[in-house]
Amino acid sequence: MEISVGGLVGLYGGLLIGGFGWWFGRKMAHKNRGIDELYHHIWQKARSYSWFATIAAIYILFSISALGVPLKVPMVLGVLLLVHLGSWAIIGMVMNFRMNVIPKPVNKATKIVLGVTIITISIIIFTTMSLVTQNWKFLLWSIIPNSLGIWSIIQIKEKAE
C-alpha cells in the first residue's frame, strides 16, 4: 500500500489553513461587532439550505451508481464535502450580500443583468467544457441555467404588464 504524502499534506494542511482563516475571521468580526443576531441567522439558514444541495448531490451520486458507473469512496466523500461546504459558503455570502448590501428591493435592471449574466456564464462554461472534452452533450447541460436566466428576464416583463 502506497502512502500519498501530497494527499496527506493537502488534507491536513487545508484543514489547518481553513481553521486558521475561520478563527482569524471570527476574531476580526468580534472586534468590529460583526457577530450579531443577523450573522447567526444568515449562517444558520445557509447551513440548512446547504443540506438540500447535499441531499441533491447524494441522489445524483446514487443515480450515477445505479447506471453502472463505478464510484470510489474517497471520490464520493470528496464530492459530498465540496458540495456541502461550497454551497454553505456561497449561500451564506449571497444571503449576507442581500441582507447587508442591498436591503432595499432589487430593481428591474438588476434582475435583467442577473439573467443575462447567468446565461453568459453558463454558455462560456459549458462551451469550454464541450471544446475541452470534445463532447457536444455538455452543451445540453447549459439549458438548465439558461432557462433560469431567461425566466428571470421574462418574469420582469410579466410584472411590468
Protein described:
The chain is mostly helical. It has three domains: 1-35; 43-103, no CATH class; 105-161. Helices cover 83% and strands 0% of the residues. The protein contains six helices and no strands. It has helices at residues 5-31, 37-66, 73-101, 108-133, 138-141, 143-160. The longest helix is centred in the N-terminal third of the chain and has 30 residues, at 37-66. The chain is flat.
* Helix amount: over 70%
DSSP E strands, number: 0
Ends distance: 67 Å
Main beta sheet: strand number and arrangement?
none
Give the gist of this structure.
With 161 residues, the chain is an all-alpha fold. The chain is 83% helix and 0% strand. The chain folds into three domains: 1-35; 43-103, no CATH class; 105-161.
Give the SSE map.
Blueprint lengths: L4 H27 L5 H30 L6 H29 L6 H26 L4 H4 L1 H18 L1
Helix pairs in contact: 2-3, 4-6
Task: Note the main attributes of this structure.
single chain; 161 residues
